[in-house]
Please model this.
Amino acid sequence: MNTIYLKAYAKINLALDVLRRRPDGYHEVRMIMQSVRLHDRLHIAVTRTPGIRLRTNLDFLPTNENNLVYAAANLFFEQFPQSCGVNIQLDKRIPVSAGMAGGSTDAAATLFGLNRLFQTGLSLSNLQELGVKLGADIPYCLLRGTALSEGIGEILTPLPPAPPCHVLLVKPPVNISTRHVYEHLTLDETTRHPDIDGMIGAIRRGSLPDTAALLSNVLEAVTRREYPAIADIEDTMREFGALNALMSGSGPTVFGLFADRQKAEKAFYYFKTGPCGRQTFLTSFFQPAVCGTRQ
Ligand code: ATP
Model:
């Protein structure tokens, strides 16, 4: 095998809690992660010439070590030196800087693909140990599906698949700095924390209404205040019949969960023909057939 095609799936946070800020500046989190079918595509080809050559369909993205795909390949070759190199083509569809772990999922797919191509025999946990050096979300992006994520994001507990539904994703045209959001988050006795354990119970019962009712993201305390567009999109999604809607990660993407396909499509066409049109997607949850295997 000297080429591999990979799908790198986006994630949303069904719930996101921040427990505390550690002395080293990292935040301890508790999150329910969920993969969605929206994905980037990667094609990796082994070449006789050593080195990493990356191309992407988005001309504003870096193609050097500042791209997480390049950084992941670099890390892999540092650990497992090879006499040959790789050409990588990255086709982005996941919006960039959107709160959907686009870069992390590409890095995870790159590590997975290189492990296959060069037959290095790394287990899922070996790959996760490598991946966490580049980003806290990468171990989850290697696992995928429904999972509880703790620590700085690297302690993962797979959960039963969240109940299937239609997922509307809308990214408003605002730039949010993840750093700014975390720096302006106040954690005190007035903070309303998501009911993560309640949501785990709802997922285990397979109840979509109960899961949707508990959607919650502690970072919205910052972003809803500063970016009213986020709350407006959530309200509109609910008016169209979403069971509930929430901002993913540190935003600005908003997702709405719909039980009813027709209502989801109506909302999709509404947003698709508006100012967020190019960054509007109708998708669904992605669950890997077996945890840690790729489709
Ligand atoms: P998260 O949800 O983990 O906070 P995000 O979806 O908000 O991630 P990304 O799209 O992963 O954000 O990446 C944002 C930044 O990372 C951009 O500044 C971009 O230039 C850089 N970047 C590096 N590699 C990639 C990649 N493969 N895809 C997208 N962005 C990348």
